[in-house]
Specification:
- This protein has five helices and no strands.
- It has a domain of 28 residues.
- The chain has 86 residues and is mainly alpha-helical.
């Protein structure tokens, strides 16, 4: 009897009179919807790597090209340095 009492299968264990998550998000004054809006507005921090890349691109005056990996960027930079030294 005590195990049945504690299990989630027991009738009335979880109250169902609260609004669903969809309903809470639909209401603009609810905690969940206000939290979600605040997270969307929250300032995204730029990584140190991205800051350095932006500085280099601004200095070079080039359009930002899409980068695939950091390792590829390092290899390209090393190759450019070798070409400039030669």
């Amino acid at each position: 009897m005590t195990r049945l009492k504690k299990s989630r299968k027991a009738k009335g264990f979880i109250p169902s009179d609260t609004p669903s998550r969809r309903e809470r998000l639909a209401d603009p004054e609810s905690y969940d919807s206000r939290r979600r809006k605040a997270q969307e507005k929250k300032k995204k921090h730029v990584s140190v790597y991205e800051k350095e890349r932006q500085k280099e691109e601004a200095a070079a005056g080039q359009k930002p090209a899409e980068r695939k990996t950091r390792l590829a960027d390092k290899i390209k930079k090393l190759n450019q340095d070798k070409e400039q030294q030669e």
